[in-house]
Design goal:
Elements: H1 2-35, E1 38-41, H2 49-59, E2 65-80, E3 83-92, H3 94-100, H4 103-106, E4 107-110, H5 113-117, E5 121-125, H6 126-132, E6 139-143, E7 149-158, H7 163-166, E8 169-173, H8 174-181, E9 189-194, H9 200-211, E10 214-217, H10 218-221, H11 223-261, H12 263-271, H13 276-310, E11 313-317, E12 321-324, H14 331-357, H15 361-365
Parallel strand pairs: 3-8, 5-7
Antiparallel strand pairs: 1-9, 1-10, 2-3, 2-6, 2-9, 4-7, 5-8, 6-7, 11-12
Length: 370
């Protein structure tokens, strides 16, 4: 039973830990996906501002669209004191963007109140704030393509969770961005929030055909990350399966030794009228008891070990953020551990059970075994 308990515990802990390492990046990815599963990229020079408004009005008629927000995007230089950085400027309408994205939940310092009412207010990414050594209330200068610096007040700091985004992202009001970037239009792309994330590719194709602009679903945008996650899960499954195989050999050895140590008892039972299948059933039931007890205790132990591992303090500041070792709590880990372990126990129990059933009672009682 110890082998059985061990491999359920290792399965749950192994998949939980390996999935957890990916879950930090996956969590940031999921948060981004949930609030912008489709990005509609307009052409470089839309003829007029009404085009964007018309596209948003028509796209809201789709049942899958929960909200949408126009964004004017451009690259500018930022300066705070003696530090300079190239930033990704997002000109947004605060009301529609907050309905479409989770920007309000991303704030780690400051508030949105001043940003809503102050045209010279901006929100910057957490990594950019660390690099420029600024905080809410400080000033930041943005350099327009024309070579003029404009002074802004930092009202909030946001952490998207994706390091490359937090290192360059700056939010400002769309009218300010339009002036700063010297654009004749107020939107270069539109982000959408969908009611069903899995419908993103279908809706994106419909948008492309209808609006004649490029539309990217989150599946296309994050294809590389999704393939990476699949590879990590596959490697985890192979590793844990090998552990289960070794545990199965342990169970096989235990039951085989049990048969060998009870040869005379088996012979007596056969001489009393027990059939071969009755003897087999005894050892199969023994395996079933091991499987049941090992599954219950193994799942509890696996959950306890996983909880303990999740409390290990580490600091990760890569493409995702974590202050503790990340683990994934997923009931499917325990379900698969139990199912695979039951199969392993059955296979490991069958051979010893069959051997026990084939023992010749007369020869055994005479002091030898067939």
């Amino acid at each position: 039973m110890y082998c059985r308990l061990l491999h359920v515990r290792i399965f749950a802990l192994g998949l939980g830990g390996i999935d957890g390492v990916g879950s930090g990046r996956a969590l940031a990815l999921k948060q981004t996906i949930q609030h912008s599963p489709i990005t509609l990229i307009q052409s470089n020079d839309p003829p007029c501002e009404n085009v964007s408004a018309g596209i948003q009005a028509r796209s809201r008629q789709f049942a899958d669209v929960a909200a949408c927000s126009a964004v004017l995007r451009g690259t500018v230089s930022a300066r705070a004191g003696f530090d300079n950085a190239t930033v990704d400027l997002f000109g947004i309408d605060a009301t529609s963007h907050l309905q479409t994205t989770n920007l309000a939940q991303q704030l780690t310092a400051g508030s949105l109140d001043e940003f809503r009412n102050n045209p010279n207010a901006i929100i910057i990414g957490s990594r950019l704030a660390e690099f420029l050594q600024v905080e809410p209330g400080d000033a930041l200068q943005l350099l327009s393509p024309g070579g003029e610096y404009r002074r802004f007040a930092i009202d909030a700091i946001a952490r998207n969770g994706v390091g490359v985004v937090d290192a360059v992202r700056v939010y400002c009001h769309v009218r300010v961005a339009q002036t700063l970037l010297r654009k004749p239009f107020a939107a270069s792309m539109i982000v959408y929030k969908l009611r069903d994330l899995e419908r993103a590719p279908t809706v994106a194709r419909a948008f492309e055909n209808l609006f004649q602009h490029e539309a990217q679903s989150w599946q296309d945008r994050e294809e590389a990350n999704l393939q990476l996650f699949m590879t990590v899960r596959l490697s985890a499954a192979i590793t844990v399966s090998l552990i289960i195989l070794l545990a199965g050999f342990g169970i096989f050895n235990v039951l085989t030794m049990s048969v060998l140590s009870k040869i005379k008892e088996i012979a007596i039972l056969r001489s009393m009228g027990y059939r071969a299948r009755d003897i087999s059933a005894i050892f199969l039931w023994q395996g079933a008891m091991i499987a049941t007890a090992g599954s219950v205790i193994g799942c509890i132990a696996g959950a306890a070990f996983t909880l303990g591992v999740s409390k290990i303090p580490i600091q990760v500041r890569a493409s995702w953020y974590a202050n503790h070792f990340l683990v994934a709590w997923n009931w499917q880990h325990y379900l698969w551990a139990t199912l695979l372990a039951v199969i392993a126990v059955f296979i490991a129990s069958y051979v010893p059970a069959r051997r026990a059933a084939q023992l010749a009672p007369v020869a055994t009682l005479r002091g030898s075994s067939a």
